[in-house]
């Protein structure tokens, strides 16, 4: 799926939700495009003394309920349209989770894994200099995303503080604990996915203890959900990543698999398992399928092969509209990304609140308990909309998000009632 296709699909999903809810065309006109997207050209001095430039973007969508919020990714496939679509999805996600944020997203076209660390730092700092007037603790609060982490956030924070003479560390979340990060942030997205998977299993009458789970993707999100879901009693029997796939009927040892991936760069070759492809993973007779890789993975033909009664989206946009329709027609419970993978931004919100409270520290137990509450309540709200409108959980999530946004826009006078 191209960035343009992803953007158009996101627009169409919002348009359909506005129409089904009976809101005015004005609501869709406000939500169909980001408020603004900034393009940044970052000049970097390479180790050999030559100068290269890297292109980055930051898109801000709609700040109905508060400051913009969304991650920054470093990846070769970043496009303007992809970043804008992801910003739109962040607006919807924050609305579903009840967070006081609008949606934003950022990205730089680069492969940090193929670059010296000094070059990655220059890219991070140059990107922030370009965004200096766009971000801030009360306006736009970035966080880590694909191929960025607490270290990158530390560089970005330092550059922002130096270039603005500011002292408020809350402008970035996902920071190290030493720089005002929060306990329990690592693995928060995966833990949130595990919590909504638990709720989905309750609805479908699947016993989570011993439930068979297949996960596409074993990056930060895939690893996080694998550890979290096994801690709740489920068995991860299959995992794929860019290097290949592994399957074990009795369940994989997630801790050992994680150690293997850290040493070898991927799951391929892990001993004592059967290899498998993505196509085989999607067709496994498991209880829960969690796509946690990239967008556009579950197309209509793939959806026809899925045997799991529950699909929980860990990645952003892993299911095409056509694939989602097939899942709905087949009666598969489909928990969408804007609900399922909201654990990361929810804990980012907790970190932001912690920082705004003057550094008052939250314990990991408090963070996890509050995250459970937010995810469980959001799941219940989405399910209520799903039942009220007799639609899938995926469509119910979009209806709930758009309804909240439309109501906020009406109350603020952005559109007529």
Low-confidence stretches: none
Strand residue content: 15-25%
> Number of DSSP strands?
12
Major sheet description: 7 strands, mixed
Shape: globular
Contiguous helical run count: 15
> Helicity level, as a percent range?
40-55%
N-to-C terminal Cα separation, in Å? 36 Å
Q: Note the quaternary state here.
A: single chain
User: Helices and strands, in N-to-C order?
Assistant: HHEEEHEHEHHEHEEHEHEHEHEHHHH
Overall SS class: alpha/beta
CATH architecture of the domain at 188-340: 3-Layer(aba) Sandwich
Question: CATH fold name of the domain at 188-340, please?
Answer: Rossmann fold
Radius of gyration: 21 Å
Give the full name of the CATH homologous superfamily of the domain at 188-340.
Answer: NAD(P)-binding Rossmann-like Domain
User: Can you identify the CATH class of the domain at 188-340?
Assistant: Alpha Beta
- Major sheet: arrangement of strands: 9-8-7-6-10-11-12
The mean pLDDT is: 95
């Amino acid at each position: 799926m191209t960035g343009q296709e992803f953007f158009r699909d996101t627009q169409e999903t919002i348009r359909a939700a506005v129409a089904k809810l009976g809101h005015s065309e004005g609501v869709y006109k406000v939500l169909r495009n980001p408020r603004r997207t900034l393009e940044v050209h970052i000049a970097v001095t390479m180790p050999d003394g030559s100068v290269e430039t890297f292109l980055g973007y930051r898109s801000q969508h709609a700040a109905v309920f508060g400051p913009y919020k969304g991650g920054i990714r470093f990846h070769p496939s970043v496009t303007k349209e992809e970043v804008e679509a992801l910003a739109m999805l962040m607006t919807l996600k924050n609305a579903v989770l009840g967070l006081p944020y609008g949606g934003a997203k950022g990205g730089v076209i680069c492969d940090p894994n193929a670059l010296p660390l000094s070059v990655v730092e220059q890219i991070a700092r140059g990107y922030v200099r370009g965004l200096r007037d766009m971000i801030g603790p009360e306006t736009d609060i970035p966080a880590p995303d694909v191929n960025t982490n607490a270290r990158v956030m530390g560089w970005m924070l330092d550059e922002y503080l130096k270039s603005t003479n500011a002292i408020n560390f809350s402008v970035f979340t996902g920071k190290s604990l030493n720089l005002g990060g929060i306990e329990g942030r690592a693995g928060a997205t995966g833990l949130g996915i595990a919590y909504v998977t638990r709720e989905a299993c309750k609805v479908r009458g699947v016993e989570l203890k011993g439930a068979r789970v297949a996960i596409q993707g074993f990056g930060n999100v895939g690893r996080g959900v694998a550890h979290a879901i096994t801690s709740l009693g489920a068995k991860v029997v299959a995992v794929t990543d860019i290097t290949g796939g592994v399957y074990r009927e009795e369940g994989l040892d997630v801790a050992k698999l994680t150690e293997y991936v850290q040493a070898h760069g991927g799951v391929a070759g892990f001993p004592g398992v059967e290899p498998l492809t993505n196509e085989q993973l999607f067709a496994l007779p498991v209880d829960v399928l969690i796509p946690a890789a990239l967008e556009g993975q579950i197309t209509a033909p793939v959806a026809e092969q899925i045997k799991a009664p529950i699909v929980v989206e860990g990645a952003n946009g892993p299911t095409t509209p056509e694939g989602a329709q097939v899942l709905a027609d087949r009666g598969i419970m489909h928990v969408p990304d804007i609900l399922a993978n909201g654990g990361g931004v929810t804990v980012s919100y907790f970190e932001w609140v912690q920082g705004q409270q003057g550094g008052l520290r939250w314990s990991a137990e408090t963070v996890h308990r509050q995250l459970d509450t937010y995810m469980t309540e959001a799941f219940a709200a989405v399910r209520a909309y799903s039942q009220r409108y007799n639609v899938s959980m995926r469509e119910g999530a979009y209806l709930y998000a758009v309804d909240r946004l439309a109501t906020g826009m009406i109350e603020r006078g952005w559109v007529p009632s």
